[in-house]
Queue: 2 jobs
Job 1
Amino acid sequence: MKRLTILALALVFAACGSSGDDTATKDDSGGDDVQLTQGTDLTIAMVTHSDEGSFWSVVKKGAEQAAKDQGVKLVWSPSNNDPEKEAQLIEAAVSQKVDGIAVSVPNADAIKGALAKATDAGIPIITLNSGADQFKALGAITHVGQDEAIAGQAAGARFKEEGAKKVLCIIHEQSNVGLNQRCDGVKQGFGGTVDNLQVKGTADVATTQTEIKSKLQADKSYDAVMALNPDIANAAATAVKGASSSAKLATFDLNADVTKRIKDDSIAFAIDQQQYLQGYLPIVFLKLYKTNANTVGGGQPVLTGPGFVDKSNVDTVEKLAGEGTR
């Protein structure tokens, strides 16, 4: 595969440290500034569909560490799964004349106009997390993230190997193309029945839990559940137990709760896309582009996953997940 994951990881370890102290302030666009007392005069905006939950807190931590290591100012701008707001935040970053924009792409149509303004202004773009199929059309240098279809196929194949017959795939964000790609990939890898369930999402975990529980009570033939987010996985674990279901549960992405549940067998495995790198690497790449005219990816995404975390390796990553970097 023409992928540069190894190069990406090498750049992480080669990143220069900064001895300057940093202070965090709030900027006028609603984003968080990470300002260094020492470093370059570069400003990079990271605009995402973050809901500020456990997954995105790791992305943010990676971005903040990269900003510190690279000596740049970071403007963190979450849109809480609101495509219109995300477009507005991109336009705000363009107005501020930032030196680079890193952006997630759950809905390319909603933000392509705003990104075109960035391109017209000569601001380099790197997409992250979602958008692997759209980054070229959006004018980005490269994409940092996971191929969602490939990851879904791996998860579906894993369920098939473990003898599952019918899978429920839980979609927690409407209009997020990446989540649909995951479930489609699960169907391809599994080769059997996979049904999608649209739930309320991370904004209302209690309702989400009830929706999953009701589905499992109504159809006892589901023997596998695929969550696409750690917080949803936690709700699904409670729902499986509440429904008196014997379904195996797996999830995309990690946090401390997921690693604990893998250890106690309430989650069978997790697909790890290493979201810390999705925050860290775009800052490094944009800094190198601005200061040394470097490009990475060779026209292909820089992949950060997928990988499996299960009983065989959970002890290795548990401490790191507890520290918020996995």
Job 2
Amino acid sequence: MKLMVAFSSPKRSAKTVAVAAQHAKGINAELILMRVVPDAEKVGIVAQLIATDRPEERANQQIEQVVTQLKAQGVNASGQVRKGEVAAGIIKAAEELGVSLIFVGTMSFHPKPRFFMAKDPIVHYLVDHCPISLCLVRNDETAEQIEALEAADDQVDQAAD
């Protein structure tokens, strides 16, 4: 059996990866981390003009880091980075890889937490269009808290460059 995590970053996807890893380990399933990076050529001319390979390289590094951690915990894990339309790309990859279940993280928006909201179009697209079963994993941190964590992460990456 194959399970997939719709991976966005180590910080944003930490809880989703942890839940998926627990399930994968429990049923001896393969866990695939899938990150789909938007294709700058399809986003628009400005994005195409300023595009670099950095987002794809960083995504590969992040996936490799998390896969290494999962393997150290005894999880049969692998990862892939693809370019394209994010939500449709997740579905396409899952179908191609024969995935049985996709784990997707959602955000809590305070003061009225809901399971998923209009501010999360990828989750909505997956819920509406994905022919494969989804496991939605609620993240209890607010969008602002996660953005602050990612900003700190970006500063560390820039200092290392």
